[in-house]
Amino acid sequence: MELAFYASSLIAILATLRVITNTNPMHALLNLIISVIAVAMLFFCLGANFAGAMQVIVYAGAIMVLFVFVVMMLNLGSAQVQEKKWLSPTTWAFPGVLALLQLVFIVNAILAEQTAAIAQTEITAKQVGIALFGPYVLAVELASILLLAGLVTAYHLGREDKRGDVIAVGSKEGGK
To answer: Where would you find the membrane-spanning parts of this chain (predicted)?
Structure first.
């Protein structure tokens, strides 16, 4: 289990560095998904099964889908040209190798005779709920506001101003 922990740590670091250094948003999103799954594996290795499951469900599932929709809303160019770029083997090579490596370590950890985790404490959903809506309620609300602000910003940056959509104050159309 220690090998899976250290390998997942390395995969998370590599994928996160690729997220930061990549200029193509779809490439960055692919690497971010791999990074989130590697962090979930770290939670599983540490015995925090609930936190690992929430990492996969909430971040790799819901928020990544939201990010993909935001990137699609940005309309980065011709759909056919972008599809060809996103479906090229060079786009998927590095994230694919990292995902395959992570899959090998996950399967190895599941099939291993050693089922003991590094930490033996189990965290229940009730304990997480009490912590999130107790002393950390302000942090949870600030994170939700930050995510909402990011979504609104992405929408406003990506939308196209079409003539006739918005009537400016003081223009000739506004006076009629």
So the answer is: 28-49, 56-77, 92-112, 133-155
Instruction: Return the axis-axis angle of helices 137-158 and 64-73, rounded to nearest 10°.
Output: 20
pLDDT at 145: 92
Q: What is the pLDDT of residues 127-164, one digit of tens each?
A: 878 888 888 888 889 888 988 888 888 888 777 666 65
- For residues 67 and 29, the answer to whether their CB atoms sit within 8 Å is yes
One DSSP character per residue, 102-158 reads HHHHHHHHHHSS----SS-----HHHHHHHHTTTTHHHHHHHHHHHHHHHHHHHHHH
Closest CA to 29 of 42, 16, 41: 16
Which pTM was predicted? 0.56
d(CA 166, CA 161): 8
Find out whether 8 and 109 touch, Cβ atoms under 8 Å. no
